[in-house]
TrEMBL record:
Listed CDD domains: LolA_like (cd16329)
Alphabetically ordered keywords of this record: Membrane, Transmembrane, Transmembrane helix
Residue ranges occupied by any Uncharacterized protein TP-0789 domain in the UniProt entry: 117-298
Domain of life: Bacteria
Protein name as annotated: Uncharacterized protein TP-0789 domain-containing protein
Organism: Brumicola pallidula DSM 14239 = ACAM 615
Membrane-traversing stretches: 33-54
Amino acid sequence: MLKKILNVFTLSLPLLIGAPLIGAPLIGAPLIGAPLIGAQLIAVPLIAATLIAAPFHAMSADLSSVDVASIVKNAEKAAYYSGNDGRSDARMMIVDAQDRKQMRQFTILRRDIEDNGDQQMMVFFSRPADVKDTVFRVEKHVDLTVEDDRWLYLPALDLVKRISSGDKRTSFVGSHFFYEDVSGRAISEDSFELQQETDVAYILKATPKAPDTVEFAHYVVTIDKKTKLPILINFFKADNTNYRRVEAVKIEEIQGFPTVVRSKVSDLESGAYTLMEFRNISFDLGLGDDVFSERSLRNPPREWLN
């Protein structure tokens, strides 16, 4: 019975988008959006298309002089650590290979336990009715010797299901986002090398340090120089097949932080994809530790959800 309900939940879930969930990201993708300076929108689709289709204009022949570690660290900070905490309403649309669509709406709350360190996250689902009051809770740890903690509360069963580390790169509620896309992938899990530098971006290749724990052989990430945000990530198999893509489709400046407000994950083999859009994004709200407690799984903090 439990397996059947979990399968129904997973298959019926619509895609969100708002923001990797409070600025996500990605080296992964920001989940709470990406701010836009003034009213000026950053043309991410144009940048991405240029990087994919056009020849590169290298800024420097000596790529060894570029501080790759700083580029990656700054990208992680821009994507995951906007403000000390954050809130966003999100809408996800899941489109399968037959062009059938499902929708999900939820609210994301995020809190940094320490600057550039451990984080807490809650995702509260509100629509449709079959997933209403479902809650995803994350305790994210930067120390790789400590596993991230992830739980899913299923109200129909009044059950808290723990998401094991082996499931972190599986579908998040039926979408093409993975659980790890939502909570974030630690940069210390991969080795990075600079492949190209253009006028507007750095293109880096990332190889997992523990290849047996992931489904990809490597990924190539494009980091926008202006915002420092990862705007395009292509995942490759061992035979160099590009099978998965994560894109920051739209970026805005919110409270001074470049924030991804629309993102997309594509299954390049089937043509299916998921879009996520964020709105009502706010940072530095003073969210308390009690908001992210186990108690909030069954008793959500309503004052932050309306």
